[in-house]
Amino acid sequence: QVQLVESGGQLVQTGGSLRLSCVASGRTFTTYAMGWFRQAPGKEREFVSAIMYSGGTTYYAESVKGRFTISTDNAKNTLYLQMNSLKPEDTAVYYCAVGTYGTFRRGAYYLGTAYDYWGQGTQVTVSS
To answer: Per-residue pLDDT for the chain (128 aa), expressed as one digit of tens each?
Structure first.
């Protein structure tokens, strides 16, 4: 089992910045990839970004490319999402997720079903 706890979400104005954190605990040695997803009210959960734990290859949704940066501090078992130039359409609950060795398919990094463990989410609200 891997436990994930997100933090850093808050109310911010358009154009502002936030950094989300996700601390992993438990069987973290099984981590193959980590990702961020978000879900806005009345909408389906969508992919935001992912990073391969070994090698650090990153992926981004087109809607956040150039504005968001995903990174990890492997020594601290922590995933980050630096969000700049925030827009009202970025308002959502942001979730971090872990995909593990043996089950994660790299080509499916953008699918929620590729991930085995999820955090409880942190609310990001961008005011216009």
So the answer is: 999 999 999 999 999 999 999 999 998 888 899 999 999 999 999 999 999 988 889 999 999 999 999 999 989 999 999 999 999 999 999 999 999 998 898 899 999 999 999 999 999 999 99
Residue closest to 119 by CA, chosen among 35, 52, 63: 35
> With contact defined as beta carbons under 8 Å apart, do 73 and 126 qualify?
no
Q: What is the sign of the dihedral through the CA atoms of 94, 95, 96 and 102?
A: negative
- Number of helices and strands (H, E) in the chain? 0, 11
